[in-house]
């Protein structure tokens, strides 16, 4: 479902004399349906950068990213938007929402974008908010004033409300207590069981060991390591 081949990335610092920083070269990975792969590597090795390229936020310098058969690198924006709507779910660490939109609508929005009827979208959103222990009295309020852990759970509910075939998870258990962490791990197991291909960054080592089938060390994709034609 996710196929990354010979991917490279450079950042150009336009406000610092156009300095070009190579951060990744020769990155290869794949994630099959029903599999959860964890990205590991020291801080600054490029885990988030790789995830953002796969989500289509960062443009690679070279190489290929195919998701469910679609070539992401260089795809037209409307193709990327369509892929994110149908196929590619993403749970980032931070919730970004429009002010004044009630929490239940924030969670139901991915279903509404797919044309799911309002009543069904709302019911599915409420079910996830209930599973993730967001108090019912908060469902009609905007999540902008919620605690960090509550916002993260709203983000997770939004990412799991539609059975996306591909899921990118950036630290999904980072600010959660033990009980909610178990709920998130259960959601990940359920997604794997229905055949989702999942790529995640988990600093929570125990969570990583429990849900990941394989680990990919991004440190192997740093340009210094791949210089001279060494395989990554
Ligand atoms: N927008 C950007 N502009 C310039 N450099 C960037 C940008 N984003 C990331 N980098 C650089 O790319 C490298 C990889 O960063 P990245 O955030 O992907 O690492 P990471 O492995 O996710 O780190 P951590 O585990 O600390 O979150 C770092 O050296 C970082 O400074």
UniProtKB/TrEMBL annotation:
Domain of life: Bacteria
Lyase keyword on record: yes
Matching InterPro entries: AAA+_ATPase, ABC_transporter-like_ATP-bd, ABC_transporter-like_CS, CP_lyase_PhnL, P-loop_NTPase
Gene Ontology molecular functions: ATP binding; ATP hydrolysis activity; lyase activity
Keyword terms of this UniProt record: ATP-binding, Lyase, Nucleotide-binding
Domain ABC transporter span(s) in chain numbering: 2-231
Recorded family membership: Belongs to the ABC transporter superfamily.
Protein name per the record: Phosphonate C-P lyase system protein PhnL
Originating species: Paracoccus liaowanqingii
Gene: phnL
